[in-house]
Write a structure and sequence with these properties.
It holds the Pfam family Lactamase_B. The chain is α/β, with parallel strands linked by helices. The protein contains eight helices and 15 strands. The longest helix is centred in the last third of the chain and has 23 residues, at 213-235.
Length: 293
Amino acid sequence: MSDDARARLEPGLVRLRAANPSPMTGPGTNSYVLGRDRLLVIDPGPVEDAHLAALLAEVDGRPVEAILVTHAHRDHSALAPALAEATGAPICGFGTADAGRSPLMRRLADAGLGGGEGLDAAFRPDRILREGERIGSGGTPVTALHMPGHMAGHLCFAWRGGVFSGDLVMGWAGTLISPPDGDLAAFRRSCARLRALQPRRLYPGHGAPVDRPAPRIDWLLSHRAEREAQIVRVLSEGPADASEITRRLYTDIPAELQGAARRNVLAHLLDLMSRNRALAETPGLAEARFKLT
């Protein structure tokens, strides 16, 4: 690990960054080791021998009470079984990778729409966490907050006025919302709820801590509103599908990000449909042409 991959953010809180930088993960996935005598590990990260070694060196033989997973994407959750085997700690999360999907998202999945960008289909927590549950003892307890949007089963964890925000709010870029795993309506609600909590600081799954959460969340919601307005303008010129809209709006991104951009557009189209602002011309929503109502 490079020197800046480890950072002591606060007393009793260390961030270890996995060496998995990419256009989707930014500088890499953040894992957090919380506590002094008894520990919690939040988002153990991807399967990577060096990262596992770094986590175990940080643990340094201290008891780990729980391994907390914000959501079942492989860059956050896949290392959990190996860390659990090494420490004896239970893996805690909302559920399997498809847990908590809305009826619309289940319908899309049943129709064959796969999200799956990094989905950890093998994820099986030892303990299911629900809204408001407290985990940990002594000076390190956190409270689970169900904050869907990036994924239906996405959790955040509140701690001493701060929040471990996973991929709901990141420190380097906007959040990918890819149906049927992601849900834009849920994302907006979760962002509004997180802002209302007035956290003093966010510890995201990627990027640096967010020291001014309210402006960051406002930017994310404003960015989504601007993208929706662009999509509505395209549809005002006539019916279009997600691929066509993506080509027209995302003209300056690399080819490897076009698929993610299309999923974001589809998320907007489904959200417009759920609010009766748009209609699909054909039953297959993933490939349908949409028109304004």
